[in-house]
Amino acid sequence: MKLDNIRLLVSNFDDCLHFYETIMGFSLTWGERGGNYASFDVGEGSVLALFKKELIAETVGTKELPEQVRSQDPFMCIFEVSDLEETVREIKERGGRFISDIEAMPLWGISTVHLRDPDGNLIELITKLPQEKWDESLVEQHQRYS
């Protein structure tokens, strides 16, 4: 079995298409405004797709359920970048708004920052910290599982 792609089920299809293509800068490989489906090349053969939430709800029999319920985030899309500060600057220049500042997380071995797409999906951008900046407990775990 192999993961084919991640498909976000969205209510604001056109806004999300614009966000992932223009704000995030992903290459659109299929789809258009006013459509039902779009896919993006997010690097190294990985695909992020969008699909109208209402259409899948009809297919799987959940159309009568609420479209959104306020809750903690059930997932997030994580994208690794080589230069986090530069990527944040570029996304801000294209109109992106971040919900956190860049923060080094030695316990996780990364620096991270967060934003949301127009549908409220949580996105995390990360860059790996050099191992000498990792928390000692992470170094120990890494050695144990390597």
Indicate the CATH topology of the largest domain.
Signal recognition particle alu RNA binding heterodimer, srp9/1
Intertermini distance: 24 Å
Shape: globular
Tally of discrete structural domains: 2
What sequence of helices (H) and strands (E) makes up the elements?
Answer: EHEEEHEHEEEH
Helix content, binned percent: 25-40%
The strands making up the biggest β-sheet line up spatially as 1-4-3-2
Strand content: 25-35%
Give the C-level CATH assignment of the largest domain: Alpha Beta
Per CATH, the architecture of the largest domain is: 2-Layer Sandwich
Number of DSSP strand runs: 8
- Gyration radius, rounded: 17 Å
Q: Unreliable stretches, pLDDT < 50, 5 or more residues?
A: none
User: Quaternary arrangement of the chains shown?
Assistant: single chain
Secondary structural class: alpha/beta
Number of helices: 4
Largest β-sheet summary: 4 strands, mixed
